[in-house]
Amino acid sequence: MTGRAPRLIGRDHELGVLRDLLSTAPTARRVIFLRGDAGVGKSSLLEAAADLAAERGMRTLHASGVESEATLPYAALHQLLHPVRRHIGDLSEEHRSALERALGQVSGAAPDTMTIGSAVLDLLALTASEQPLFLIIDDVHWFDRPSAEICAFVFRRLADYEIVTALAARSDVETPFDSARLPELEISALPESAAADLLASAHPELSSDARREVLEHAQGNPLALEELPRAFAARRVSGDDLLPAGVPLSRRLEAVYGHRVRELSGSTRLRLLRAALDGMRAGNAPRSRTTARYRLGDVDEAIEMGLLVVDPREGAMAFKHPLVRSAIAQMATPNERRAAHADLAEVYRHDPERRAWHLAAATLDPDESVAAALEKAARIATLRGGSTAAVAALTRAAELSPRNADRSRRLADAAYIAGQSAQLDQAQRLLEESDRAVGAVESAASAMTSAYRALYRHGDVASAHRELVHALRREGDGADQEMLSRLLHVLLAVSHFASDPQLWALTDAELDRFVDRVEPLTLLYRDAWSDLARRGFTVRARLEKTFAELSSGEPWDLMRLAVSAFYVDSLADYRPALRKVVEREGEAGAITNVMTMLHLVMLDQIGAGHWDEAEITGRRGLEMTIRHGYELFAHQFRSYLGVIAASRGDLEQARELRDTVESWARPRGIGLLTQFHDLIGTLAALGAGDYETAYMYASSVTQPGIFTPYSHQAPRMLLDLVEAALHTGRSEQARRHALAAEEARLGEISPRLELVTLGSLAMTAPDDQARELYERALALPAGGRFPFEQARIRLAYGIWLRRLHANSAAREALHFAQEAFARLGARPWLERAQLELRATGAGVRSGDGNRPQLTAQEKEIAELAATGLSNKEIGARLFLSPRTVGSHLYKVFPKLGITSRASLRDALAAMNGQQEG
What is the model's pTM? Predict the structure, then answer.
């Protein structure tokens, strides 16, 4: 056996980096990601780091990705935390419950990433309070994605704890951590001199000719330098060609191990096969024994052949290298692998997910009991945020289904979840296979997925609606209840985006046709998403009851309920559930729903006045939708970013976003987005004092005195149209519109509509009625949840009071309005409030000593510019044009009192220092 020191010849730089990582001196770097080819020595470096950590009195926790468990949500997290599980009971009730559910210790849906991540961080911090921790995580390319998301959450928050982490993965494969932006250390092949030293130390008996041959083939790879001499000796004896030319080094090393596996006795080889399929890790570092529950014994000959290693500190066995594990699995016959999986299924008889996958691997012919077990595992995975794993389980369940009808149903279910997980192409392939299973030319499920693709990727609402209506007329009567509901829900979604009365008439006709089978949830969505001004009076009450019943249900149900909650302005009531789904689903869950939920999170933030947070959410959502090719959702995010820009007076950016949305949405007939185009134009014009333009935009959404049917913005833009009409001398139209809102009882639909209805009535009322209406509006308990609308009504009230020469009362109202606009960053409205205050003879309050403030976007652009990025590079990161970036910087320079980019870094530092002070 080769000693540890020789294997680390030539690694002084890498060991130095690891020593720095483990240093007790304060440092911002608490994590390092080792990347390199197979056999280059990543695991050896991790082992050496564990020794260094032990010398510093640190406790080491290990986890290793296992290929067979990559589809099991939280499998790797379970492995990492198992040694410290005794501390779980010391956590808060919320965090204890979160970990127990995520790790499968108790039943129930796993909570969101934020909750689980916080619980894991608390658990590790509690453990580290007894003894500093070093986390070693190997083979992360085989981590299940939910575990990776939790770990990435934790790694970004280690600076304040005595916890450091080292990860390792092959450089030629994707890992779930690639987007986490962790600091990386590339582990390269050894230079020629170091390779020669390592070979001489490990195999001093080699002749010079043999040494040259090994060095030539090993190419500086430490594992090859250690293993090839023995392989060459075996080749000379057997005559086998173990190293064919042109084959990658990793494959040749695998062949080396395969030759040794063939020399094992049959019983030992089969025991190793079970350990390999059960996920026993590779590498010399100690590990938790919980992941691999198969008890491996009597393997001395495998240890002698260098296939297994034993850690002297804990006695834990592991494969010498991942290539050993893959060689064992590949050399087994299909019957041997199936028998091994059958044994492992019995080992995991109390773990439904692992048992189902082992049963599936052990089964060759169709078997309904195994298919049902996989279907159950898919349901568990979905509730735990593992939609990707659920698709895989249902697909395999379909393969094992004896009846074509069950095969088709399971493929259709897999396609539905794939469609909700941003896997539209896979969903289409699954549905085509589903149709073939029952000899269908085109099924209802296929039409549904085609509609999804047309809607989300291309915004083709007309063809999507037409295809769904045809499917309902063709197959609706024979569809089961679940498929009928799915079809109707997609039809409602398409109609919602279209906002077209003609398409809604066809949708309503289909709902009427199936009136005896339409579920209450479906009717709730219809009433909230269609013509709210006429159908929305009972939505809030129905939502409250339904949300409580489905708070832990499937993500698509919660998503639709959240959309409904937005239209009746009750998103804030369900904010925890909303964020829970966003965090829980992550990149391995229902991505389509995550994108929709991010829209709702952003809209909630806009409504609540958290505009800086809303911009951050919008940028995140825009990047995600562009990455997945969801053009419709990308333009929604642009619409919301445009609303913020218009409200803040960033006219150039608002105009750019508005025009981008319109040029894409209007030709496609996407009324939901074209109405946002008009809203952006209205807000920008109102802020700029261009009231005629504002009236033109607002009245294009709905005419005074009516609320255009099936127009989502018609009731929501009530205050905007009234204000634009008043400022352009259209007092009669303004009053008519306010009275129409009262007559339509909009205030009974939502608290925001109640606020703007009373505000509009006050703004248009005769003087002897106005004060009471203003005070009623401003006294509404829910008014503070909508700070922008409330501040605009306060501003109008202050102006009205000043006109009546009630300057003292006017100053009070205007001061409140000014402070609200300042908090929001609504500059045009702030300037107007300050102007009105001066007209009352009052000084203008400024909470920051009149120092100009940067908006969130201005600050982000300034910080990027301070790093030396060009306008073009900044624009590429933030999805802005270089011209818009330049315009923002033009505003930033005078605010900071500078004239060039060279001064940005110091000016930003000074500004941040003042804010902290």
Answer: 0.60
